[in-house]
């Protein structure tokens, strides 16, 4: 592998919580799920997207990190709003995601995120292995999703996402 390195905060979290994983190299322009899956021959139901969600019209803003399969859609309007106890929420924009997580969209990953609840859709946990961001757009993590349960702020949520139509 070339000089593709995980973000230090991601590397530290993986080591601290003893999360078993494999690092996969990824061309930055192929980091988004559809492009990654097509180019690297990964089934979309093995891709775990990590998304930062922010409340709307609530001060201070409430955040959550959500992990869902590439074959599903995050239920922001009902499930995530209920979890955050707000009426409105939406995907955080790229600037907010970077400032809040230190990670670029297309590379956001649960390990390395602190002080924010992490909600993992129960369908993710049913997969034998998933590929998720490595904290940047040039690496991915391959891991058993049960490894995510080692992170202290992870909760598995039934129905966090719905199948795509």
Write the topology of this structure.
Layout: H1 8-16, E1 22-25, H2 33-40, E2 48-55, E3 63-69, E4 72-74, H3 76-84, E5 89-91, H4 94-101, E6 118-121, H5 122-125, E7 130-133, E8 139-143, E9 154-157, E10 161-163
Parallel strand pairs: 3-6, 6-9
Antiparallel strand pairs: 1-8, 2-3, 2-5, 4-10, 7-8
Highest-level CATH class: Alpha Beta
State the helical fraction.
10-25%
Total domains: 1
Widest sheet: strand order? Answer: 5-2-3-6-9
Give the rounded overall mean pLDDT. Answer: 94
| Helix-strand sequence | HEHEEEHEHEHEEEE
Number of strands: 10
Unreliable segments of 5+ consecutive residues: none
Oligomer kind:
single chain
Give the helix/strand class. Answer: alpha+beta
Kindly, what is the distance between the CA atoms of the first and last residues, rounded to a whole number of angstroms? Answer: 37 Å
Q: Judging from the principal axes of the Cα atoms, what is the shape? A: globular
What are the main properties of this structure?
165 residues, alpha+beta, YbaK protein, 5-stranded mixed beta sheet, 3-stranded antiparallel beta sheet, 5 helices, globular
């Amino acid at each position: 592998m070339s000089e593709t390195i995980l973000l230090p905060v991601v590397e530290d979290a993986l080591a601290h919580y003893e999360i078993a994983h494999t690092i996969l190299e990824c061309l930055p322009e192929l980091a988004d799920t559809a492009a990654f899956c097509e180019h690297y021959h990964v089934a979309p139901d093995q891709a775990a997207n990590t998304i930062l969600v922010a409340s709307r019209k609530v001060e201070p803003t409430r955040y959550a990190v959500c992990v869902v399969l590439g074959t599903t859609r995050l239920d922001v309007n009902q499930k995530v709003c209920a979890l955050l106890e707000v009426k409105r929420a939406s995907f955080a924009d790229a600037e907010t995601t970077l400032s809040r997580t230190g990670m670029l969209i297309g590379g956001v990953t649960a390990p390395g995120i602190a002080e924010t609840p992490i909600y993992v859709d129960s369908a993710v946990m049913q997969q034998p292995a998933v590929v998720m961001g490595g904290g940047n757009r040039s690496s991915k993590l391959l891991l058993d999703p049960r490894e995510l349960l080692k992170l202290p702020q992870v909760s598995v949520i039934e129905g966090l996402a719905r199948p795509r139509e």
